Structures are given as structure tokens and as C-alpha cells.
Amino acid sequence: QSSEDMEPEKRKAVHLEPLQAGEVQSWIQMQNETFFFTVNSGTYETGMVKEEQEAGSRFFWICDGETKVGTLILIPKEDSLFIDGIAVSSRYQGRGYGRAALECCGRMAAGLGMGTLSLIVADSNLHAKNLYERTGFVCTGRGPEWFCTESSLMQ
Fold first, then answer.
1. Contacting residues for 46 by C-beta, under 8 A, at least 6 apart
2. What is the pLDDT of the chain when averaged over all its residues?
């Protein structure tokens, strides 16, 4: 049995919570811990969060009930919701939180009247690439060290 196929009762209600001003340092810590060892991925500093928020990025916690299990950055585009970063803490990986977070993104995009989700994934990040392919994303372009992928909204 794959860890992605864990029994649903092991998870509570996975949802996204907007990042609050007093939580920025905790969010950065979880984001950076998750991405520090991922080749071709970036880490955050305090000023970067504020700068990106002012430019339209939306920062979220991925939550299981009251427990923060990961981080997420979304950028609304004209007709697509761009996932600029999704990270599940190593303590919670392999439990279906990545898939559940993508489903939350799909519902959010649909609620905003957007037809697709899009993202870029480092070609070295095989676990993420495999998750995206299993959830309906297809490669729409390729850079020197990354794939551009897109998915019609998940059902």
C-alpha cells in the first residue's frame, strides 16, 4: 500500500489557512526546512514574503485540522492559479497531504473562476513530479532544470 493511499480517517480536514502577519517566521522556517536540500529550489527570507505579497502572491499554511503540515504560495493569473511553491514538512510527507493540498488549490481556483492550475517543478524533484503527474498535471514546457506543468481543474 502506498503512503499516498493512507486511510482517510488518519487525516482530519485538510485545508488552507492564509498566513497571518505574526506567523511569517514560523512559515519561513517550515518552508526553508522543507526546501533546503531540494536541488534548484529557493528558500525565503522575511523581506521576500512581504515583497511577494505586495506583488500579489498569497501565502498559506497547509493544515490538517489545527496542525500546520506544510506551506503553499499561490499567484492568481488571468485564467489560471499558479502554484509558486508547495511544501509538506518532512514529518508529514507520504501521508497524502500534497495531494490534498492540490485538491484545495483546485477548489480555490474553481471558486475564483479559473480553469487551470499551473506550476514549475525542478526536474531533480522526482517525488513532486510524480505527484503532479498522478494528479493530472501534464508537461507544457521545459527549462534547463525544470518542467512547466498544467492541469485542468481536478474533479
1. 24, 25, 28
2. 84
Asked if residues 16 and 63 have their Cβ atoms less than 8 Å apart, the reply is yes
pLDDT in tens, 93-113: 999 999 999 999 999 999 999
The answer on pLDDT for 92 being more than 50 is yes
Residue listed under C-alpha cell 499561490: 74
From 77, 80, 101, select the one nearest 152 (Cα to Cα). Answer: 80
The answer to whether the CB of 75 falls within 8 A of the CB of 82 is yes
Sequential DSSP letters for the chain: --GGG--GGGS--EEEEEPPGGGHHHHHHHHHHHHTTSTT-----HHHHHHHHHTT-EEEEEEETTEEEEEEEEEE-SSEEEEEEEEE-TTTTTSSHHHHHHHHHHHHHHHTT--EEEEEEETT-HHHHHHHHHTT-EEEEE-SSEEEEEEEPP-
Q: Is the pTM of this model over 0.85?
A: no
